[in-house]
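note to self — DONT lose this again. spent like an hour looking for the file last time. sequence + predicted structure for the chain T wanted, 142 res
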Amino acid sequence: MIKARTLARDGFRTALLCYSRGLARHFQLLSATWPEQERPAYVGLFHDLPVGWGAETEQEFGGSPVEYYEEHLPARLAHLAGETDEEELFDAIVVDEAQDFADAWWEALRSPACATPRRVSCSCSPTSTRASSTARVAPRSR
């Protein structure tokens, strides 16, 4: 969360993503108390981001919940990012609870539409086997 705040303060359009609803709500409430220039542009669940960009809701989707969350939404995120206005995309993506993210979710975040030339960073629990990674870039000129 501190990394997302710092990136936003440094001029990066930042997304702070996580897996659990409780943690996402905590992040939303806490970040709302920060000065506006320090707030990430998006704070919330990985799965809510593609829905916010126009993906079908679970009720509108015709398949199983597992298929919806594990396959459909990650694919839709990568697709919708390619159709989203450049100014709505992120310079930096910070992931908390990275150990809970499925491979397909990482593939969507690292897709060219979402991650190039942006930054993807993860924060893992100390017991996670997923390696922490960060790719650094300069903020986009506006």
